[in-house]
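Q: Predict the assembly, please.
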Amino acid sequence: MSNVILRAEHISKSFYGNKVLDNVELSLEPGKVHALCGENGAGKSTVLKIITGLYTKDEGEIYLEGKQIEVPNVDVAKKYGIHVVPQEMQMLPELSVAENIFLGNLPRTKSGLVDWKTIYSKANEVKAMLGKAGDKIDIRQKAGELGMGAWQLIEIMRAFTSDNIKVIAFDEPTSSLSDNEVEVLFDLIRGLRAKGLAVVYVSHRLKEIFQLCDQVSVFRDGHYIGTREVSEIQTSDLIAMMIGRDLNMFGDANPGADVQAEVALKASNYSHGRFYQNINIEVHKGEILGMYGLVGAGRTEFVRGLFGADPKDSGELEIFGKKVNIKIPRDAIKEGIGLVTEDRRGEGLMLIQAIKWNLSMTNFPAITGGLGMLDLKKEKEYAAKGMDIFSVKATGIDQVAGGLSGGNQQKVVLAKWVLADCQILIVDEPTRGIDVGAKAEVYAALHDLAKQGKAIIMVSSELPEILGVSDRIVVMCEGRQTAVLDNKNLTEEDVIQYAFSK
Amino acid sequence: MNKLKTTSREKLLPFILGGLIILLSVVFTIINPAFITFSSIHSILLTAVPVAIVAIGECTAITAGYFDMSVGLIASLAGVFAAKVVNATGEAVPAVIVGLCIGLLAGVVNGCLVSFLHMNAFITTYAMQLVYRGIVYIITEGMPVKMVAETCKKYLVIGQAKAFGVIQIPIIVMLCLYVLVWLFLRYRKLGRSIYLVGSNAACAHISGINVRMVQFFVFLLTGTLASIAGMLYGSRVGTAPAFMGETLCLEGIASSIVGGTSMSGGKSNLALTFLGVLVVYIVKQGLVMVGLDDAYQYVATGLILFLGVLFQIERKKN
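A: Predicted assembly structure:
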């Protein structure tokens, strides 16, 4: 224990009377990557924000190298050598990388003007500290021309401008990165660890914890559950700690069991520019067709093309044997197709509106009464039915959708299509950003729908999910369809080999 | 305390506005007892009619995610054209039809530019407003169009006659429009769609709503309502002013925002917009009856809008 650099004890925090952290603790050691793990709302991000000064604690003590400290804000935290790469990055896209690095802290000449020479020379210095990861960044480039991966590097460079770095915390750093960028980031974090920094790492992705981290602390419902050495535990142990019970996440999947003979959707020769070319798929009633590929493989673009959400160049579509022409989402909905988009908050839900409006908007006929007027009583019943299908946890159908947890939001999106009686459901990254417990519920819901004879196309970047849920798997790589596999005795390697270009 | 914060001010707003109206009435009545008489209340409502009707359109437009800056000049244009037709024919029906058509046409132009050519609504409608201003000037040479009482009787009666000998017709028309549009927003698919498009157009599109048609319709509505406002005003005062109160459009927006219409779209209540109009006009009338100069009305209206916006900012923080 003598090796602890930062220790937080008895930390409690409430928002509007809701206790989000209750007497939690955390010990960080130098030269270790320490994961904070838990379901959504477990408190892991709040812990990170309290030790880095983004939030203030209500109760508790923080010790840095044995001395008690207070971190009322980020600036004070930085003075103590505690830095954070937040989830919501502060970036001015119209300014150069160098200016963004020194944001709010631009070096000045004696006369008070901005000292451009120092900015660029210092920026190059901190860029050099990134090692290879920094190669692709030109410090004079506008930040807006760079991707999220590069923005994260800029955030890290901001920390490097300080000569005092003891702790650096990452909040869900990989949520918006491509696989390549993730690799770059991981190498960089490993480098920080080698330099003897204490790294805090918050992520939803259990796989990453095993790839990258040395220790893991688990939180549940605002309580501290425990800390383990990653080398000594398995994924199942971690899940058990997170949800407090054993859980077979993917349900009793018996691939192929519910698949019926009838073809629900047949797409031929779908192409759209450089995004995807010549895609052919068939989905049967009762089947879950997984679509796997790396980020940028064209899966999302393809399913959006199917649904009419994005344009396509060519392609023929048959729904239950009937040729149809889908140009816009309304056409697709008429044919009984629903799309659960990747971007739940942007396209899936009306965050500011009540659950009932979110549920009824795909099916106005169902809530229309005499004289073509909306029947608000009917709508209430309709919405209540929708909440029941997937047991959405909410205060009622009048609750605003934005107030729901990620998992419950996703259930509402699923329900709005199921209520509209969709026979074909396209789900794009259905479990992105939702916690383990809710994931299991989403999988159960998908299986349920397949049992009822719906045809489901599931796009996912998570292999365990693809293997755990699909009956058949289509693999895409750089816009091409590289394999169609029956999900029988497949290993991750069997699938992933088709996802990489050769 | 906590509950007060989180149960959102939306629920408190009707009480705040209602309380404000009562409070203002009491204060003005104490200063000048004539304030609470029937004729005074009737006159508040009557002067509020143009803004109140424009506010219906603005409330709907802001709900859908837009500001329509052209309504003031659409009102002028419709009022002037209708007056010209009346002067020429002495008939009310063709005048009203011409006026309505002008409102519709202006709405079609705005709607095409914004929803089909994807031009920025604020700038586009502002630009169109300049165009309409020019047209009005060309037609009238900047002079108000007078309507002679004897020959234009059929048209002037719309604005001046009293229903049941008590309430002047523009007030009745205004109240009917409020009820109709309120019902429309609440009980029609298209009305609901206006809220949905304003909440999240991308999500509405994916969910099968014809976003462009909804936006287009909103401009038709604001344009038509503006033309009604313009004609009612002209027929009431017997003159169609070349430039109806420059402030018509802004006061309509202000009342709507004071009435809790969310400036980011998707949230509004037309009934509260009406209360917003009342607040603005009670203050105006009150200041006149208290004996203050016209100039103070501008200051007061500005302050009310300021408070309305302030109220919304706070709401966002929650």
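Chain A has 17 helices and 20 strands. Chain A touches chain B at residues 16-17, 307, 309, 328-330, 333, 339, 341, 346-353, 357, 361-362, 364, 368, 372-374, 376, 416 (CB under 8 Å).
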